[in-house]
Write a structure and sequence with these properties.
It is a single chain. The chain has about 280 residues and is of the alpha/beta class. The chain has one domain: Rossmann fold (3-Layer(aba) Sandwich), CATH 3.40.50. Helix content is about 35%, strand content about 20%. Helix 4 crosses helix 5 and helix 10 packs antiparallel against helix 11. The two termini are about 35 Å apart.
Length: about 280
């Protein structure tokens, strides 16, 4: 199953995804109040602490699918707010040809987390590594590649996270990663825009003995609608799925694209307490 119909109604930002620095990307995202990396921090930080407790590890390895320029990893590793990044990359001199002038390397950096990334953009991966946001990265489209190439990713990871690439990727990519890490069985944390159906991914992960749980107490804002056409198209899809009149009204009044959160864990493991954070 693909998401071609849903993707057709979304605004495309391809022009900003494959540059040598995130300046234009962050400028575009700031104009739309893009905030999903910020909004996902509480959950991801909670999962990092849980993983440390249940594994006894001092360092938790995270694989960020669709990592782009490493925005999420920068927020987590350097304990930053997204607004700080917006302001930093809006400064005069942070042009397209420069990296980060060493500013990030002088910040206190967490020692208990290690980020690795996958993205289709080679420029974004190169920037993420050069800036120190991720330890390693792979520019690849796993929707097209037959298998994950051994040696191109860490031998083991503890958490796989996606804050915005589901829709661009499908159960094909998640299934290949589950196969690649079938011995380690990392937790898989997925923030999924509401227009996309998670069920095919959940079905694929079940074949690798994963249970997926949906956090129904909270929606996570990703960004504002680009224009009225995008809003109308999205709300039409969501309104048709609404189970109550109040839910339909909420969809119609929402000014943001919103995501749901799913956590997939190996069957038999104790359910994460992350859901209690928002109870």
């Amino acid at each position: 199953m693909g998401y071609s119909a849903e993707n057709a109604i979304k605004t495309k930002f391809d022009h900003a995804y494959n540059m040598t620095s995130p300046v234009e990307y962050l400028k575009e995202m700031r104009s739309l109040d893009y905030q999903i990396p910020e909004n996902s921090k509480t959950i991801l930080n909670f999962l990092i602490e849980e993983k440390k407790q249940c594994t006894g590890k001092d360092v938790i390895k995270i694989l960020d699918i669709g990592c782009s320029y490493g925005i999420l990893s920068a927020l987590i590793k350097f304990n930053l707010d997204l607004e700080v990044l917006y302001n930093k990359y809006n400064q005069k001199g942070m042009d397209k040809g420069r990296l980060d002038d060493g500013w990030f390397r002088n910040l206190p950096c967490r020692k208990d987390v290690e980020f690795h990334g996958i993205d289709t953009s080679a420029n974004a991966i190169e920037y993420s590594i050069s800036s120190g946001f991720i330890e390693s990265g792979l520019a690849v489209n796993l929707e097209m590649e037959e298998t994950v190439q051994s040696g191109k990713l860490p031998d083991d990871v503890d958490i796989i996270v996606s804050t915005g690439c589901i829709g661009y990727i499908t159960e094909i990519t998640l299934g290949k990663l589950a196969e690649h890490y079938k011995l380690e069985k990392p937790w898989i944390a997925s923030f999924v825009l509401q227009i996309f159906d998670f069920e095919p991914i959940g079905d694929a992960l079940r074949r690798y003995n994963y249970n997926s749980v949906y956090l129904d107490q909270r929606k996570f804002r990703q960004r504002k609608f680009k224009n009225q056409n995008e809003k109308t198209s999205v709300t039409q899809i969501l309104s048709k799925r609404a189970e109550t009149a109040s839910e339909k009204e909420r969809f119609l009044l929402e000014e943001f694209m919103c995501a749901d959160f799913y956590l997939s864990q190996p069957s038999g493991e104790a359910k994460s307490n992350v859901f209690s954070v928002f109870t």
